[in-house]
């Protein structure tokens, strides 16, 4: 295997790094010459950018000849540039591993198929499949996605899905199925997803694509998925739970669509027994676009959450006082979050009265929990993330005044059995 000796730092640091004095006047080198294979290269990128390898380390031809030696890994020596770089020899090793893999014609065909699928080139995909390209090939140089995950074209997807060797249930390194990736990256492309849903061997539950659709997809995408006989709108993951936490402008529409199509508003999530009402006020991933102000966007999301809460409370079958595994109610959660806007709306519902004095598994009422959360918030350091949109003092004052008002009302409602002993009833009410 060919090698080269480098003492000139200009190949790494720029042409101005070397002295222009004569060889006789040149100072002694600071370090011993570094020997490395001519196959050394920067991180390999798609072929159109690979031409940049020529010059610094010998180009692709040198790499391909170098990896012919089965012991090339043992012979690698870090260059001066690699010694200074945080990446070290990683990019060079990666480039050589790819070149070694591409000695196999099947890998070359598979990479070409992935590129064609990503370019939505149906004619090219058909040609490569006829030449024997693997429809399940992982694109070595770009990502770990199979070709079916890379395309946005229903025609290309149909060619791949109809191939006899296709495996429609492959998962990526994040444990996402092909269907999950399709729903996530093609949120409105229902025609593309429909092609995959038609495959008889598809596991529609792997990676819970229905949950991803509730978090990020459109109502049309939800409708398309729920038309599959094996998917249920009352999936144990809780579609309504994730819909109420959406931070985009489609959150209210998605919640209303789910309620109109038969979702159970009191469904207990399979993780901790919480209902969707308890999730109102929660936040899914938040994206701040260029030109947007975070404070403005958070206020917009909060306004939509108030609308979602009102939509849920309009349901007569909603269990407002449901508790989770820690015996916390929705009022507990909203109070702990310091969301006075949500607490105000919730307290207007007469069904919430039992939650005022309900104690969770730690023996705390919503008022106690809010006070504790406020104390923790005050103890936060300046660099710690604050509780956005929280107004704990207002929540505490609201809960106190509401509880006192309801106690006064209850004292006047003496049961007939205790009409002769009003003091007993008064003591019972005050103990709340």
TrEMBL record:
Q: Biased composition, Low complexity: where in the chain?
A: 9-28
Protein name in the entry = Uncharacterized protein
Q: Which UniProt keywords apply?
A: ANK repeat, Repeat
Note down the stretches annotated as region Disordered: 1-28
Q: Which InterPro entries match?
A: Ankyrin_rpt, Ankyrin_rpt-contain_sf, Multifunctional_regulatory
């Amino acid at each position: 295997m060919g090698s080269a000796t480098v003492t000139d730092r200009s190949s790494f640091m720029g042409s101005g790094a070397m002295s222009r004095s004569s060889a006789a006047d040149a100072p002694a080198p600071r370090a011993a010459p570094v020997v490395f294979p001519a196959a050394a290269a920067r991180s390999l990128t798609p072929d159109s950018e690979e031409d940049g390898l020529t010059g610094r380390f010998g180009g692709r031809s040198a790499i391909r000849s170098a990896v012919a030696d089965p012991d090339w890994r043992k012979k690698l020596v870090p260059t001066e540039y690699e010694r200074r770089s945080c990446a070290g020899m990683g990019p060079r090793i990666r480039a050589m591993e790819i070149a070694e893999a591409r000695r196999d014609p099947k890998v070359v065909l598979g990479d070409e198929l992935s590129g064609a699928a990503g370019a939505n080139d149906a004619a090219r995909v058909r040609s490569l499949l006829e030449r024997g390209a693997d429809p399940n090939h992982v694109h070595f140089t770009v990502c770990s996605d199979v070709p079916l995950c890379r395309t946005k074209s229903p025609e290309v997807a149909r060619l791949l899905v109809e191939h006899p060797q296709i495996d429609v249930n492959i998962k990526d390194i994040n444990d996402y199925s092909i269907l999950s990736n399709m729903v996530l990256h093609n949120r409105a492309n229902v025609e593309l997803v429909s092609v995959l849903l038609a495959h008889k061997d598809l596991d529609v539950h792997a990676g819970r694509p229905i949950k991803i659709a509730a978090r990020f997809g459109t109502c049309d995408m939800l409708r398309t998925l729920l038309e599959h006989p094996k998917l249920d709108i009352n999936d144990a993951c809780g579609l309504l739970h994730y819909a109420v936490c959406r931070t985009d402008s489609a959150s209210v529409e998605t919640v209303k669509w789910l309620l109109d199509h038969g979702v159970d508003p009191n469904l207990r999530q399979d993780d901790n027994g919480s209902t969707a009402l308890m999730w109102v006020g929660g936040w899914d991933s938040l994206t701040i676009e260029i030109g947007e102000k975070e404070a403005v966007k958070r206020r917009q999301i909060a306004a939509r959450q108030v609308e979602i809460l009102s939509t849920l409370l309009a349901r007569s079958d909603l269990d407002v006082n449901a508790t989770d595994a820690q015996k916390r109610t929705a009022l507990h959660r909203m109070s702990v979050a310091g969301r006075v806007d949500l607490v105000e709306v919730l307290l207007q519902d007469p069904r919430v009265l039992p939650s005022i004095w309900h104690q969770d598994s730690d023996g705390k009422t919503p008022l106690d929990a809010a006070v504790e959360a406020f104390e923790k918030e005050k103890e936060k350091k300046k660099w710690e993330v604050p509780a956005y949109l929280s107004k704990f003092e207002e929540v505490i004052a609201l809960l106190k005044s509401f509880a006192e008002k309801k106690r006064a009302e209850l004292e006047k409602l003496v049961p007939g059995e205790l009409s002769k002993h009003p003091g007993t009833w008064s003591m019972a009410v005050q103990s709340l």
